[in-house]
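To whoever is on call:

I kicked off a structure prediction for a single chain this morning and the downstream step that reads the tokens threw a length-mismatch warning. I double-checked the sequence; it's 185 residues and nothing unusual in it as far as I can see. Pasting both halves so you can look.
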Amino acid sequence: MTQTQTQTTVQSQTRTAVQTPSTDDAAAHMIRKALSSCAYKMGSKEISHIAIKLRRGDSTACSYFMYSIAGQVAEALGAQDDNVQAVYLFEHDATPQDGCFADSSGPAQLLHLIVHVSCQTAALNALIATLDRALVQAVARALDGPPQQSLLDVHVIDDTEVTSHTGYGALLHSLHNRPIQVWTR
């Protein structure tokens, strides 16, 4: 690599580092965007009303809110890791009544995601864990409640699991409980 190429690479990496918001800021932005999206879909002009609905366990508000977060998490993972091929949202709860904020004093439902990657890496697992912690704190602040233990339940699968229909890769071919693709490369 020539000196000019090295300088260009360093400048590019520095520019990226400066332009990339912290994980906490990104999580807070995701939550604000999810609240706004939920308010829009529910025909509400006040985000504070949506926060109240979420705390009370309104299933429609919870569904819109969680779906928006799923899409944003998927986009973030895809932007940060080139190995991510697709992200899917799937239902893990037994019934719709298991809802997102079923008990106003209880924790939110976990966001169940399947992340299809070309190659599994420890870096992706670390990114998911960091994002999960930041989202938990952002939700607690936005909804003025105690933080729950986790928001993300992520299962990383590779091509082998998908083609052999094993593990969570089998869900991608399920006839009865097929996950919803929320992002693809």
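Update from on-call: the warning came from a stale cache, not from the record. Cleared it. Sanity check on the structure: The helical segments are 3-19, 23-41, 47-56, 59-80, 122-143, 159-164.
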